[in-house]
Amino acid sequence: MIKEYRTIEEVAGPLMLVKKVDGVKYDELGEILLPDGHVRRCKVLEIDGTNVLVQLFESSVGINAEYSKVRFTGHGIRLSVSPDMLGRVFSGMGTPIDGGSELIPDKYMDINGTPINPAARIYPSEFIQTGISTIDGLNTLVRGQKLPIFSGSGLPHASLAAQIARQARVRTGGKEEKENFAVVFAAIGITFEEADFFISDFTRNGAIDRTVMFINLASDPAIERISAPRMALTCAEYLAFECNMHVLVIMTDITNYAEALREVSAARKEVPGRRGYPGYLYTDLATMYERAGKKAGSDGSITMIPILTMPEDDKTHPIPDLTGYITEGQIILSRELYKKGYIPPVDVLPSLSRLKDKGIGEGKTREDHADIMNQLFSSYARGKEAKELMVVLGEAALTPTDRLYAKFSDAFEERYIDQGANENRTIEQTLDLGWELLRILPRSEMKRIKTRLLDKYWPTEE
Question: Which of 38, 308, 377, 405 is 20–30 Å from 180 (CA)?
């Protein structure tokens, strides 16, 4: 039997203290019944004997401590899930906001979930095509991987997120799978304009039919910002491990999530860690990131691309720093490339996908992928060095070969990195473009490509 309590002791901002409560658990969902009949929700944050501290989902304005009542539901925050979620738009609390009907749930799932048991994990080894050359060709995304994008304020990470969501495809045996693929998109703490952009972009390009969107606005309560990514991951787990689909989860912006976590921590008067963030930020992020992957006994998978904006473009900031420890690499956006007008401005040299070697090669992408990837990295790095020397010493001081490398560096940025927000390249087009650009250099400089591959893809001396 659900009990109702009229023992509200204090309301302080987003927190409320309720006394003489029994049988309540951490993270349990509660409901506040106001004298006018309205109901507001809350979540148990802390239990001290019979005293319970709860976090409000909505504003505390209008809560009368003497006449308001509190009841606890006996369960945590749950998401009603169903295959009919595809093509729908939800709030950060899982409520439909697209004007459609309420879902008829297949089941209810606790949004906190659990990380995948390491013993049940299957090592990621299958290629996901994003249609973006700098990712597919050089920092390959593998099914079941966690590959974050590190951006900065003002950089086009929103359009990159939309582009990946539109273009992403799973491939098996080198061929595209058209079924059993879904995108779960979580927008955390975004503006009305950004929400309109995402919804209209997905709808206009037909990607909405295979997408489940969770939209949390900057004007929504901080606690909803904390729930939104977990709602998205719970939906992804249902689609992946119960509907056997391959799910790509894109979350933007993790920085807004961490800011909300800091706000709640400060309200609870917890001892702050680095830069005011709670000391458990690493653990909290890990509880989300580690829900991605593949596991034994299921044909589905969850691949995650969390996007975060680095405050002041600082890679040592706690959010990108801790994210880098938990995930398998990072894609870094460059302000310098963006100023040149290159879209997407991916800085390929510091970017890294730690699992890329497992998802490329014959039967997955193409036999020449690994060699041409290594050669492009090497040639671009040497070209950048040649351009730096050119600035200091002048072009006349460079050798003819170094001048060719400098020319290659410019062409690589203009044609390989810069592909626009709407061009969708297959992995074959990306690899062929790599060969075309390498022809700027003499064949004798192709020291990272096997001779048999050179003979096949570069058959004549030039």
Answer: 308
Instruction: Kindly list the distances between the CA atom of residue 62 and the CA atoms of 13, 15, 36, 201, in Å, as whole numbers in the listed order.
Output: 12, 14, 9, 39
Q: Which residues contact 265 (CB under 8 A, 6 or more apart)?
A: 272, 277, 278
Please enumerate in sequence order all residues whose Cβ is within 8 A of that of 377, keeping only pairs 6 or more positions apart, or say none: 138, 348, 349
Q: What is the DSSP string of 335-403?
A: HHHHHTT-SS-B-TTT-EETTGGGS-STTTS-TTHHHHHHHHHHHHHHHHHHHHHHHHH-GGGS-HHHH
Residue ranges of the chain whose pLDDT lies below 70: 1, 172-179, 459-462
Residue 173 has a pLDDT of: 62
Distance CA(40)–CA(44), nearest Å, equals 14
Which one, of 353, 236, 339, lies nearest residue 291 by Cα? 236
Q: Which helix or strand (DSSP H or E) is residue 435 part of?
A: helix 427-438
pLDDT at 433: 96
Verdict on whether the full-model pTM lies above 0.85: yes
Q: Mapped to the 3 state alphabet, what secondary structure does 273-299 carry?
A: CHHHCECCHHHHHHHHHCCCEEECCCC
State the pLDDT at residue 66.
86
**Cα–Cα distance for residue pair 216/432, rounded to 1 Å:** 41
Distances in Å between the Cα of 79 and the Cα atoms of 201, 292, 314 are 26, 18, 36
State the Cα–Cα distance between residues 449 and 367, nearest whole angstrom.
11
What does the block give as tokens for 192?
Answer: 């009305």
CA distances from 166 to 147, 169, 248, 365, 421 (A): 17, 9, 11, 20, 11
For residue 221, the model assigns a pLDDT of 83
pLDDT of residue 202: 86
Distances in whole angstroms, Cα of residue 257 to Cα of each of 16, 247, 308 = 22, 22, 9
Beta-ladder partners of 91? 215
Return the DSSP state at 146. Answer: B
Is it true that the peptide bond before 253 is cis, omega within 30 degrees of 0? yes
> Which tokens in the block code for residue 57?
């989902």
Per-residue exposure over 416-451, b if at least 16 CB sit within 10 Å of its own CB, e if not: bbbbeeeebbebebbbbbbbebbebbeeebbeebee
Mean pLDDT of the chain: 90
CB neighbourhood size of 131 (10 A): 21
CA–CA distance, 438 with 372 (Å, rounded to integer): 9
Task: Report the SS3 class of residue 67.
Answer: coil
Residue 175 is predicted with a pLDDT of: 61
Q: Quote the CA–CA distance of 316 and 140 in Å, as a whole number.
A: 24
196 Cβ contact list (under 8 Å, min separation 6)? none
